Predict the 3D structure of the following.
Amino acid sequence: MERATNVPESVARPVDPVPANHYDRFAEAYSAETENNLVNAHYARPAMLALAGDVSGRRILDAGCGSGPLSAALRDRGAVVTGIDASAGMLALARRRLGDDAVLHLVDLSDRLPFADGAFDDVVASLVLHYLEDWGPTLAELRRVLRPGGRLIASVDHPFVAYAIQDPRPDYFATTSYTFDWTFNGQSVPMRFWRKPLHAMTDAFTTAGFRLSAISEPQPDPVARELFPDGFHDLSNKPCFLFFVVEVPPSATGSDD
């Protein structure tokens, strides 16, 4: 599920009777907000597509597909895409975007995935993993459904940004949660993310059996310079998201040979 651009209004907030991260409550507003904005449409998605490269004919799982903009872009580039998301409301929007023949499943990434071993050539997980306290079980499942040599392309909140949004600063080296409100069309919704240090992220990938291929801190799409001049300059000069490409070793033994 891609993240919207709203700056957190409050980091420390009282317990809310509405559950955090309840995308069904604001699916339409969220999808509209992120469709053509700077951070999602001209930074996060182009960066994921650039890292994916030539995807023609590749079987790709969009893990946390939301309303389907990344799935649509991958499909337009010739990929065979399957989408999963934990929000029925977001999947309904994805169905509307992608058509009745799209392969979409209501799946929580904390659960076992309903796919065979080695079913996919690639998995894309755009701004999803930071919703999870423990990446281990999810990464193990993503590795299972990838063929040998397959790739996981993932983006998360940059750990330096997650560390810096709270004052006083939290323990950078600890895995801790932080909560805030997003506002869409005047509706305030509670959100909860998990932050962890960079080494914990890379350790989680390697523990799950992946081999690190790339870590990327990309620039926004140059076309956004004219569309969002102020925001473009700001986004070009400070960290926002962190992108990873990790691979399943090509041999069954997990060696590099």
